[in-house]
Design a protein that fits this description.
The complex is a heterodimer of chains A (206) and B (360). Chain A has 206 residues and is α/β, with parallel strands linked by helices. Chain A is built from 8 helices and 4 strands. In chain A, β1, α4 and β2 form a beta-alpha-beta unit. Chain A starts with 5 loop residues before the first helix and ends with a helix. The chains are: A alpha/beta (206), B alpha/beta (360).
Chain lengths: 206, 360
């Protein structure tokens, strides 16, 4: 794409580094910004500069937080003995929204994937093990994606934690609520069948 | 099962074409370059979601346009099933069955089995092992549900494992646990793929000789054999033994991604000692054996595409081949030929109804 202005070109190049944004969309966005009030656009820009300069992570669980301890970790009513391991803050927010979980989190910051250059050292895995070694935790729950990367990370964590005196569990895999069995793929159905639950558990949770 | 009609839009040299087909034999006649083979390739798209001749979809769009569309109606178990394949330079490829989009193309493959015999098949003999593995996989995917997904999974683990080996090397560390995890996954998928490939080749080789002698009349002793490192050792041992080598080369040197098929004539590679004619007969026999095997396996007849086959064989063999339709060996057949007269004469000699479609 040829640009009449270096300034526009720069803006388009920066915007198109965002995931899911191609050159065309980037140009549309850049032109849109030009139409807005100067103040508003400055605010827009500064919000990212502030974000990158002042971002802070919770010392306990490594989630994004404005203070040293996040809202969950600083809440006295949360059960510190149950740790839920998640990939990133998005999953943590999703689980928080269920209002089902009363324990605390541990944010790994990614999943093991050599293809994407991510090794265990790039994740907060040693920190999790240290936390378990402190002896407060009684259960670690893996809430990771059901993909090869998620399963590899599960396996790695399990191997690291299996000799500790704690319960290690993983969130259930199987039929999504409201799904019709007829349209469920075979792998999911097979997993759901082999990890079936006593029906009495169903009654309790509903 | 048969294909009732076909619509092409901006596909290769077809701006807009519509065809209605016969349930038995359909013959496309016309001069070189009018797009006969492209019609076969479009049918191949509907079955395999991709071209037989050129895997790069964007190159199959008509010149100066930016998308193509292929649509066809299959009659299967008396149901009409519409399959549509769209490719757009911007949004990529979409396959729809009865207007419903597929999430995974691997779910589509195998529903409308098809076998093609084409002059480019000679690559199977001449080229490297990759094309023969592709042949194995596309054949098996025609009757074995889930095989392609297993293969996709295997390739993904393999890729991760290779990157892991690279990471070990570059960052100078070693992690037993992740490697073990990838090994376990590879073993799980490799064993399934190995068994499936072995059984396919074994069963194919049982009928292969019969078809070779029908096609060639000759007495050469021909054979196809499955070559795999897994024939010698189980994959677990292979991975263990090659670990130190793999760590140096930063690549996984053992597994089913190294498989091959050995094509022999009188105990020697046909690539080396076979004449062109013998190689052609060999490949046609291979495809016929495959057709025979898959028909038996699935219980109905796949579609067969015969691309330019009359030019490759003498009249006697062509008649032999066409007589297969008389015996009910073939289901729906699509043929391309440059000589209308020759084609009509051959087909008139069979008692099967046929439709001649002239392409200009």
């Amino acid at each position: 794409m040829e640009f009449p202005s270096e300034l526009v070109k720069n803006a388009v190049e920066q915007l198109s580094t965002l995931p899911g944004v191609g050159k065309r969309s980037a140009l549309r966005l850049a032109l849109h910004l030009l139409k807005k009030d100067k103040d508003q656009v400055e605010k827009f820009g500064y919000s990212f500069i502030n974000l990158i300069n002042n971002i802070n992570y919770c010392k306990e669980c490594f989630t994004i937080s404005d203070s040293d301890l996040c809202k969950v970790c600083s809440n006295q009513n949360r059960d510190k003995s149950i740790i839920c391991v998640v990939e990133d803050i998005r999953i943590m927010m999703a689980i928080e929204n269920t209002m089902q979980f009363k324990g605390v989190y541990h944010v790994l910051g990614g999943l093991i994937s050599p293809m994407d250059g991510i090794s265990p050292n790039d994740l907060k895995i040693d920190e999790l093990i240290e936390k378990v070694n402190e002896g407060i935790a009684t259960e670690v729950i893996f809430a990771l994606s059901s993909t090869m990367e998620g399963d590899t990370t599960n396996y790695y964590l399990y191997k690291k934690l299996k000799d500790k005196d704690i319960k290690v569990s993983s969130i259930a895999r199987g039929i999504a609520i409201g799904d019709e069995l007829e349209y469920t793929d075979e792998v999911t159905l097979g997993t759901a069948l082999s990890s079936r639950l006593p029906y009495s558990d169903n009654i309790k949770t509903n | 099962m048969y294909l009732k009609n076909l619509t092409l839009f901006q596909f290769k040299n077809h701006s807009e074409s519509d065809y209605i087909f016969n349930e038995k034999i359909n013959c496309f006649v016309g001069n070189n370059g009018v797009g006969k083979t492209n019609i076969l390739d479009a049918i191949h798209y509907l079955s395999f979601t991709k071209s037989y001749f050129n895997y790069i979809d964007s190159q199959n769009i008509q010149f100066k346009n930016d998308f193509f569309m292929i649509k066809g109606n299959f009659i299967k178990n008396e149901n009409n099933e519409e399959i549509q394949c769209n490719f757009d330079n911007n949004s990529g490829k979409i396959i729809k069955k009865n207007k419903k989009k597929y999430k995974k193309f691997s779910e589509h493959i195998g529903q409308y089995p098809l076998i093609i015999i084409s002059p480019t098949d000679s690559n199977l003999i001449l080229e490297g092992s990759e094309i023969r593995r592709k042949y194995l996989d596309s054949s098996i995917s025609q009757y074995k549900k889930g095989y392609l997904q297993t293969l996709i999974n295997y390739n993904k683990v393999l890729k991760q494992r290779n990157f892991l080996l690279k990471q070990f090397f570059e960052r100078n560390y070693f992690d037993e646990i992740i490697l073990e995890r990838y090994n376990n996954e590879m073993i799980k998928y490799a064993e399934i793929i190995y068994e499936e490939r072995k059984s396919f080749i074994n069963k194919l080789s049982l009928v292969f000789n019969k078809y070779y002698s029908i096609i060639s009349d000759a007495q050469e002793n021909v054979s196809i054999t499955y070559h795999s490192q897994l024939n010698e050792n189980n994959i677990n041992t292979l991975l263990k033994n090659s670990l130190s080598k793999d760590r140096v080369s930063q690549r996984t040197s053992t597994g089913i991604h190294k498989d091959d098929i050995i094509f022999n004539m009188n105990e020697y590679p046909i690539k080396k000692i076979g004449s062109q004619g013998q190689q052609k007969s060999f490949l046609i026999a291979l495809k016929l054996a495959q057709y025979d095997f898959i028909s038996n396996k699935i219980g109905y007849k796949p579609i067969i595409l015969l691309d330019d086959i009359f030019d490759k064989l003498d009249d006697k063999r062509v008649k032999q081949l066409v007589s297969f339709t008389n015996d009910g060996f073939f289901g729906q057949v699509f043929i391309t030929d440059t000589h209308q007269k020759r084609c009509e004469d051959i087909l008139n000699s069979t008692k099967v109804e046929f439709k001649l479609i002239k392409i200009n």
